[in-house]
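Workshop exercise sheet. Pairs work together: one partner reads the sequence aloud, the other fills in the structure field after running the prediction. Swap roles for the next sheet.
Pair: D.N. / O.F.
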Amino acid sequence: MSEEKKNVERTRQIFEEMAQVGGPQPLLERMAEDAVYKLSLPPGTPLSGEFRGRRAIADYFELVDELLEVREIHTWDFVGNGKQVIVLGDERFTVRKTGKACHSEFAFVLEFRDGEIARALVIEDLSGLVEAHASVSGRTASRASG
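Structure field:
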């Protein structure tokens, strides 16, 4: 089996296990010690920026739990491209600060190195979270993540 196919299968397994346990632990266990995790959010939003290293990424997921109540996650495609795997899906969540229910599609890009995840980039419209924290950061409520 090619490395590309192995990475796709690893990724499918990670997402299946996360669905079973209801949390990010399977993902965290497969991240390299020096992995980087990033969301496509404007600077100043609570989840913006890069999280470097397994401990910082675990802290990120704790913050996610404080800010959002994730209700459902569905994945529908896993596309391999060499060392990268792109996961397409959607999720439903509630922003805890406002109680606003949101639905968003996402692209989750994982880059593998020696069988471990070295980098993760999540591209998703989290404008509900951005709006909830706009008064804190001085942003207008109409700004969406990008």
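Discussion prompt: The longest strand covers residues 68-81. What would you look at next?
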